[in-house]
Amino acid sequence: MKISDIFKAKKAVYSFETFPPKADSDISVIYDVLASLSDLKPDYISVTYSAGGKSNNARSLEIASLLKNKYHIEPLAHLTCINSTKEKVEEAINVLKREGVENVLALRGDRVPGIDCNDFKYCSDLIPFIKERADFDLAGACYPEGHPEAESLDVDIDNLKRKVDLGLTHLNTQLFFDNEDFFRFIDKVRAAGINVPIQAGIMPLTKKTTIDRTIQMAATKIPAKLARMINKFSDDPEALKEAGILYAEDQIADILSSGASQGIHVYVMNNPYVAKRITDNVIGLINGVNKE
Ligand code: FAD
Prior knowledge:
By secondary structure, the protein is an alpha/beta fold. It has helices spanning about 5-10, 30-40, 55-70, 85-100, 125-130, 155-165, 180-190, 210-220, 225-235, 235-260, 270-290; strands at about 15-20, 45, 75-80, 105, 135-140, 170-175, 200, 265. Strand 2, helix 3 and strand 3 form a beta-alpha-beta unit. Helix 9 (about 225-235) runs antiparallel to helix 10 and helix 10 packs parallel to helix 11 (about 270-290).
């Protein structure tokens, strides 16, 4: 099923992101995660794809296929291009086509020092490349606080418009912790004439080890309320997990109440417990929006 058809049927689409296990661990460690996430019946599950370096991408493609063909959940397969060649990207497209995957999140990816490949410069180079080869629904990434390389949020939104005009059918946001940034972004994006559905990307911060890495990677700011929570509970893993779940649920409730997004994409970090807790508490709100 094309995810654009899900957006046509629902006002609030609910989905998860998963990632492949490291190359040195057995792929089977992901099976229980996929089964548990599928049991929660999200509208789709996305699968990350490396942008070079220690590539684990065959596993990403395999997980997308498993979701589709074994767990019967629609996959959204991420596909990056920046450190790759046209031949390699085409190979991945062919695998996805062969496995019946219908939805791809087209991404540039981050530069990896030492890899110098110029087949693709921006995501806007990848979109027509895929469209010439497959009839996928193509989604794209967007950044409520602006992409870290962009000189301003307005310039980033101009570049986003270029991507959308090339044929993206929906957007998923980078994670953010201050909903006001998201609401401001949505106002600007809509004013710029970008009309595709946008799902808010929410990451529950539940582990000390992931907090610093996440903040650095996503270049997102931490509101005082969240900083207090991290400080207070950083030495108590259980309490930190509970606080992180509550913070994410609060963000989701606020976003769904606002009507600003067309759904929620939860970065569940392959943690079925966190996914279940959040789903149990927000699915009633998602259903409520869908009944309107
Ligand atoms: P682009 O849209 O190409 O934008 C990159 C930068 O270039 C921006 O600053 C933009 O303003 C500018 N720009 C864009 N087009 C042009 C143009 N034509 N001319 C001039 N400037 C331009 N990374 C992974 O490696 N694997 C993943 O699975 C993955 N999943 C992600 C999922 C989501 C929802 C998000 C938000 C990010 C994800 N990322 C992933 C991270 C992403 O790859 C990086 O943020 C990357 O730096 C940008 O990718 P992009 O597709 O947004 O790039």
